[in-house]
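Example 3.2
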Amino acid sequence: MLEALAKIDVLRSLPPSGLERLAQMARLRTFAAGEALMRQGEASESVHFIARGRVRVERELPGYEPIMLADLGAGDTVGERGVLYCEPRSATVTALEETETIELDTRALAMIGLHYPDVAQTLVAIVGLRQRATAIRERQARSRTTQRAARTR
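Structure, written as tokens:
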């Protein structure tokens, strides 16, 4: 578990003692291809660090087709936004192939924030970048739908 945690991009600055503490709180999870790690609207109780495999992140908007937000792989993080901001899941994350994650609950993330604020700041920065990218994709999806509707009139 320690080796896998050390390979996670956002956790690379943690000292060995910090990784050991996280390893004690972490849970190794395996998801089959097509299985959801989390679904949009669910309660946000944990973050998944992808150790192996690939996932797709999609958001549903009422009246629109699902929007593909990202394909992510080993070293990436999913589920951080909801946990950091105490919000429901903002997207559905589905394994594209067999995927192994390291799951940390809110208690473990609180420990990170308290003892390693630089890691917490990195997570917040990731959320900000993803929110901007999501806003752009949502605007594009709405624009495509409006254009299609105009052509069919």
